[in-house]
Design brief:
Blueprint lengths: L11 E5 L2 E5 L36 H6 L3 H14 L5 E2 L7 H12 L11 E5 L2 H19 L1 H12 L3 E8 L14 H22 L3 E5 L9 H5 L5 E10 L1 E3 L10 H4 L5
Antiparallel strand pairs: 1-2, 3-8, 4-5, 5-7, 6-7
Helix pairs in contact: 3-6, 4-5
Length: about 260
């Protein structure tokens, strides 16, 4: 089978009894490559492969940039605790914002989902949808606080650059009871909330701030029309996003880890 190895790629073949393992200089040292011949090193079988055929294999450049496990854990922890709810955004979105949103949505859909219903839906609003939602909200504010308050709110909201409405696809009516602890509706809502957190963390890691808002306008009867939400979806909330014009200080927690963590016997 050695003749089947591509000549364009240099190889080193090492006999590790009772297995024959192939290594390539283009891969990390001492990392046997998963084989394109559906054979592995288990039970002494021959293991031959090309670069990229093994999920456990990394190219040398990837190894050089991959942090140690402890460092990686620290980075993740810092990313989580360092995320902030952004209230003030720059008026212009970064150049790569659409690819960043798609990356974030991909992270979102890997959230825990007990029933595996994949209930999350994401609606990226355009200029018309943003304007319609802002005007609806301004009208609601004006009705409660007066015209000036409504105008001020309209001006502020129109300056928010990115709008992503997160919704939950409605389950069958016979399992849509939020009062039932493990109903599909309740489980799916929890899954969508996890998805929102993943989404916000992903955008944060790409230097894009977010605010998950669940203000009254999200659940007004006119919101569905303004944002273009289908009738079979429930609004979970709207995620505003963009470059942070100002990053808030870390919130002062009222309770410590010891206050909220109970160790049982």
């Amino acid at each position: 089978r050695l003749s089947m190895l591509p000549l364009a790629v240099p190889w080193v073949v090492v006999l590790i009894a009772p297995s024959l393992v192939a290594f390539s200089p283009t891969t990390s040292l001492l990392a046997p490559v998963r084989l394109g011949f559906n054979r592995d090193i288990v039970g002494g079988r021959v293991c031959l492969a090309r670069v990229g055929h093994c999920p456990l294999l990394m190219k040398t450049e990837d190894v050089a940039t991959k942090p140690e496990k402890t460092e990686s854990n620290e980075v993740l922890q810092q990313m989580i605790v360092g995320r902030r709810t952004i209230n003030d955004f720059e008026t212009e979105l970064p150049r790569n914002w659409k690819s960043a949103v798609k990356t974030a949505v991909k992270a979102a859909i890997y959230a825990p989902n007990h029933k595996r219903t994949e209930p999350w839906r994401f609606h990226l609003l355009g200029k018309e949808g943003i304007k319609a939602v802002c005007e609806l909200n301004a009208k609601m504010v004006a009705a409660k606080k007066g015209e000036k308050a409504g105008e001020a709110k309209l001006k502020r909201w129109l300056a928010i650059p990115g709008w992503l409405v997160v919704t939950q696809h409605a389950p069958d009516a016979d399992d849509a009871d939020m009062q039932k602890p493990n109903s599909v509706l309740r489980e799916d809502y929890a899954a969508c909330c996890c998805a929102v957190q993943n989404l916000c963390l992903s955008l944060h890691s790409q230097d894009i701030g977010t605010k998950w808002t669940t203000g009254d306008v999200n659940f007004d009867s006119g919101f569905r029309t303004a944002a273009g939400i289908p009738a079979d979806e429930h609004v979970v909330g709207t995620v505003w996003f963009g470059r942070a014009a100002k990053t808030p200080d870390p919130p002062k927690k009222k309770m410590t880890v010891d206050d909220v963590l109970t160790e049982h016997k």
